[in-house]
């Protein structure tokens, strides 16, 4: 089955990670066995046995009492947290993940709900994304209101239901007592009546505190470390990120960046000129679908949307290869490469192919993009999408580790792109879960890998040719610092300022391309043009 690209990742036909494997071998009607732990509060919780028999009776049954989007959100959050799946997988309704998703609901909760409509799917996306983004903040409030402060020992499903309720009340400002009722129902049916009582008690405490404007939140005071901890809770990021951004940007800018990361992401679509589909054609389709949009001021194939992605997916525009979801910051990196018909371009870390396809579409059928990647699965997606986009004729996929390509190989070009593996710190608004999956050691390892890949990519550049180094990170240690270190090791390369390729606003004082999420309202990304002496 062909897949379409979404933010550099494929829309999965199947969920990428499943709940623990024990579930997959059990019968579909058997609820997922989860570790049963309780949060000890001053509210008593009946034992697990209570209601356990009921649960079996409930299997295969349609539960029309709980709100479907909350049930699905709770299960999706469980899968993300337990299985590490990406939070921003799209809700593909109908065949495929939609049906499978209800299978997960059945197995996890012991009942299914009615199928989700457009409106429900939108709510699931908002709740799941928001609950993940605000996890540290929500957990702080939950543990403040829970008798047992250590919520890591709380029953996982119960914790997700509480997070949803807290998020809806505190961040979505939804009518509080409706939220309490709905989440209590979910806890009662999915767990047991006692769990419902507990959710009721804690959410009601929250409502009272919110009404009195006295939520138990930390103050930004004390030494740097204490302030970073408080900010990390208030803006829901890991402490190490706050410390790093405060060091590089100052506290005020660091806060703006965190606010951006917590805001609802907007997307852009690229019309695929290789299929003869222009931006005007795309605009006509969006008007017909009643999807509000704006033209990109920077790139003439791109259109911005804030909502309506589901509608576009269901209209089949992505599956037909007429357009892709691609951030303008990625498009501007391609502008820095400046692909022209007839050229040979080597894309060193190409998969799943967002930039490869865009570059290929600029060759107008003449020239070649060699797309190298070490990951065969991602490379397969690139090949499938290239066919769909009708640019497969100019793309040659090479499955290899860039670092072990033979020095004496024939593969050399005047244009080489190294879109290196990076922390992704520039795309935290779209990748809600990413902030929780990274740590400082990852950064150190990535920097080493980026240096090795830069050295390897430089060998593919012909004299007089250009190497474009790019990342989707905003971290200077992955960007400017890597370039400076590279130039110190390779005196035969020099910086070619990007001013001829991107609007002036995106050029740094060192001549690099940089899109700043706070300043440009795009994903953060970086690119440097490095020319090899003749
Ligand atoms: C940031 S992603 C590239 C995204 C891609 N350019 C796009 O626009 O869709 C980095 C890629 O580098 C690949 N990679 C990591 N180490 C590599 C290596 N040693 N050799 C080749 N590719 C590598 C990863 O598999 C991953 O697909």
UniProtKB/TrEMBL annotation:
<dbReference type="Pfam" id="PF01189">
    <property type="entry name" value="Methyltr_RsmB-F"/>
</dbReference>
<dbReference type="InterPro" id="IPR023268">
    <property type="entry name" value="RCMT_RsmB-rel_pln"/>
</dbReference>
<dbReference type="InterPro" id="IPR054728">
    <property type="entry name" value="RsmB-like_ferredoxin"/>
</dbReference>
<feature type="binding site">
    <location>
        <position position="373"/>
    </location>
    <ligand>
        <name>S-adenosyl-L-methionine</name>
    </ligand>
</feature>
<keyword id="KW-0489">Methyltransferase</keyword>
<dbReference type="InterPro" id="IPR029063">
    <property type="entry name" value="SAM-dependent_MTases_sf"/>
</dbReference>
<dbReference type="GO" id="GO:0008649">
    <property type="term" value="F:rRNA methyltransferase activity"/>
</dbReference>
<dbReference type="InterPro" id="IPR049560">
    <property type="entry name" value="MeTrfase_RsmB-F_NOP2_cat"/>
</dbReference>
<comment type="function">
    <text>Specifically methylates the cytosine at position 967 (m5C967) of 16S rRNA.</text>
</comment>
<dbReference type="GO" id="GO:0001510">
    <property type="term" value="P:RNA methylation"/>
</dbReference>
<keyword id="KW-0808">Transferase</keyword>
<dbReference type="InterPro" id="IPR001678">
    <property type="entry name" value="MeTrfase_RsmB-F_NOP2_dom"/>
</dbReference>
<dbReference type="InterPro" id="IPR004573">
    <property type="entry name" value="rRNA_ssu_MeTfrase_B"/>
</dbReference>
<dbReference type="GO" id="GO:0006355">
    <property type="term" value="P:regulation of DNA-templated transcription"/>
</dbReference>
<feature type="binding site">
    <location>
        <position position="419"/>
    </location>
    <ligand>
        <name>S-adenosyl-L-methionine</name>
    </ligand>
</feature>
<dbReference type="InterPro" id="IPR006027">
    <property type="entry name" value="NusB_RsmB_TIM44"/>
</dbReference>
<dbReference type="GO" id="GO:0003723">
    <property type="term" value="F:RNA binding"/>
</dbReference>
<feature type="compositionally biased region" description="Low complexity">
    <location>
        <begin position="20"/>
        <end position="32"/>
    </location>
</feature>
<dbReference type="GO" id="GO:0005737">
    <property type="term" value="C:cytoplasm"/>
</dbReference>
<dbReference type="InterPro" id="IPR035926">
    <property type="entry name" value="NusB-like_sf"/>
</dbReference>
<feature type="domain" description="SAM-dependent MTase RsmB/NOP-type">
    <location>
        <begin position="257"/>
        <end position="533"/>
    </location>
</feature>
<dbReference type="Pfam" id="PF22458">
    <property type="entry name" value="RsmF-B_ferredox"/>
</dbReference>
<protein>
    <recommendedName>
        <fullName>16S rRNA (cytosine(967)-C(5))-methyltransferase</fullName>
        <ecNumber>2.1.1.176</ecNumber>
    </recommendedName>
</protein>
<dbReference type="Pfam" id="PF01029">
    <property type="entry name" value="NusB"/>
</dbReference>
<feature type="binding site">
    <location>
        <position position="401"/>
    </location>
    <ligand>
        <name>S-adenosyl-L-methionine</name>
    </ligand>
</feature>
<feature type="active site" description="Nucleophile">
    <location>
        <position position="472"/>
    </location>
</feature>
<keyword id="KW-0694">RNA-binding</keyword>
<dbReference type="InterPro" id="IPR023267">
    <property type="entry name" value="RCMT"/>
</dbReference>
<keyword id="KW-0949">S-adenosyl-L-methionine</keyword>
<feature type="binding site">
    <location>
        <begin position="349"/>
        <end position="355"/>
    </location>
    <ligand>
        <name>S-adenosyl-L-methionine</name>
    </ligand>
</feature>
<feature type="region of interest" description="Disordered">
    <location>
        <begin position="9"/>
        <end position="39"/>
    </location>
</feature>
<keyword id="KW-0698">rRNA processing</keyword>
<keyword id="KW-0963">Cytoplasm</keyword>
<comment type="similarity">
    <text>Belongs to the class I-like SAM-binding methyltransferase superfamily. RsmB/NOP family.</text>
</comment>
């Amino acid at each position: 089955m062909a897949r379409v690209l979404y933010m550099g990742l494929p829309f999965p036909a199947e969920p990428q990670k499943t709940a623990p494997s024990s579930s997959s071998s059990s019968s579909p009607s058997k609820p997922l066995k989860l570790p049963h732990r309780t949060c000890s509060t001053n509210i008593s919780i009946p034992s697990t046995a209570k209601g356990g028999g009921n649960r079996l009776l409930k299997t295969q049954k349609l539960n029309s009492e709980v709100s479907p989007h909350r049930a699905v959100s709770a299960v999706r959050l469980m899968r993300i947290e337990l299985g590490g799946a990406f939070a921003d997988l799209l809700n593909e309704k109908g065949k495929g993940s939609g049906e499978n998703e209800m299978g997960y609901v059945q197995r996890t909760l012991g009942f299914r709900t009615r199928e989700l409509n457009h409106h429900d799917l939108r709510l699931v996306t908002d709740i799941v994304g928001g609950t993940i983004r605000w996890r540290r903040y929500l957990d702080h409030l939950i543990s403040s209101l829970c008798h047992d402060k250590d919520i890591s020992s709380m029953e996982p499903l119960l914790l997700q239901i509480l997070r949803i309720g807290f998020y809806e009340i505190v961040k979505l400002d939804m009518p509080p007592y409706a939220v309490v009722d709905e989440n209590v129902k979910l806890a009662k049916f999915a767990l047991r009546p006692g769990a419902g009582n507990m959710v009721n008690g804690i959410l009601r405490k929250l409502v009272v505190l919110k009404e009195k404007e006295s939520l138990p939140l930390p103050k930004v005071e004390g030494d740097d470390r204490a302030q970073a901890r408080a900010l990390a809770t208030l803006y829901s990021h890991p402490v190490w990120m706050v410390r790093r951004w405060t060091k590089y940007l100052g506290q005020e800018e660091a806060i703006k960046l965190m606010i951006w990361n917590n805001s609802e992401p907007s997307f852009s679509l690229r019309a695929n000129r290789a299929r003869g589909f222009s931006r005007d054609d795309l605009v006509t389709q969006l008007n017909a679908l009643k999807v509000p949009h704006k033209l990109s001021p920077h790139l003439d194939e791109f259109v911005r949307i804030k909502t309506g992605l589901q509608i576009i997916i269901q209209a089949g525009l992505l599956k037909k290869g007429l357009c892709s979801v691609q951030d303008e910051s990625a498009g501007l990196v391609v502008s820095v490469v400046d692909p022209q018909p007839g050229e040979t371009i080597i894309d060193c870390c190409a998969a799943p192919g967002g930039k490869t396809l865009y570059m290929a579409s600029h060759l107008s059928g003449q020239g070649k993009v060699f797309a190298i990647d070490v990951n065969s699965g991602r490379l397969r997606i690139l090949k499938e999408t290239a066919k769909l986009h009708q640019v497969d004729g100019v793309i040659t996929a090479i499955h290899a580790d860039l670092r072990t390509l033979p020095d004496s190989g024939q593969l050399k070009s005047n244009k080489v792109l190294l879109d290196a593996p990076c922390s992704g710190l520039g795309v935290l608004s779209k990748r809600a879960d990413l902030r929780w999956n990274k740590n400082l050691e990852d950064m150190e390892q990535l920097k080493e890998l980026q240096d090795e890949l830069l050295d390897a990519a430089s060998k593919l550049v012909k004299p007089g040719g250009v190497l474009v180094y790019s990342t989707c990170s905003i971290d200077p240690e992955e960007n400017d610092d890597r370039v400076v270190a590279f130039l110190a090791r390779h005196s035969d390369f020099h910086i070619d300022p990007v001013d001829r390729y991107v609007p002036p606003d995106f050029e740094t004082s060192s001549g690099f391309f940089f899109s700043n999420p706070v300043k440009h309202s795009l994903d953060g990304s970086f690119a440097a043009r490095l020319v090899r002496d003749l």
